[in-house]
Give the backbone structure.
Amino acid sequence: MAYNLDINAKDGSNPAATAKSLMNDAWASNIDSQTAQQLTGLTQIRQARLSQQQREVATLTTQYGADDTDVVTLNTSIGVQQSFASVLGATRDIATIAAPTVPANGWVLHGHVRDNKLQPIATLTVCLADEQKNFLSAYGYAYTDATGYYIITYTPDPSAPAPAPLSAYLEILNSSGQAIYIDSAAFTLTSGTSLLRDLLLTSQTPLGGPPPGTPPVKVPKPKKPAGSGG
């Protein structure tokens, strides 16, 4: 299961309303570059505070044990700080994504994939599927990088008429080529536009095998850079 980052309803284990409001503003492009820079600074301050608290809790645990009241209070505070720092980092990433160049008559689909703690997930395959959940190979695929970012660019013949809008399903596969997420409803990609889709995966459990008689989706693995070992 996955969520777009602009969802309004989240359970109590997720960050507070202020953090959700920040992410929603970033999603809606309501955060300007100056505010994005401030978010970067605030994230660094939060990380420094976290490091200080973690040192404090390590010292207190050694002296008084894990059940000490101060240790428990500090651990609770650390959990809150970590959640908010994760939201700040995700918000900063959304707000500072550079607008991709859209090919003539083409489109761009891009965004981040994160886990339920808002941490980026690398080396996932992102692709498009049709209504029967078949891989739409004509539009390519992308791998998430170390920041969880992916980008799929469709570049048709610029001299040809603009293609009709594409109705498709976003699919995410793990490193073994197993589907771990697929949209429950189709979305539309239109020529001349870019679409930002950030996703939170609440689970990375494979969705199961394909129907009987259906060959598995085969997506090539990333090629190693020239000159790399292994």
In short: Helices lie at 17-27, 33-64, 69-95. Residues 11-95 form one domain. The chain has two domains: 11-95, 107-201. Confidence is low (pLDDT under 50) at residues 1-20, 210-217.
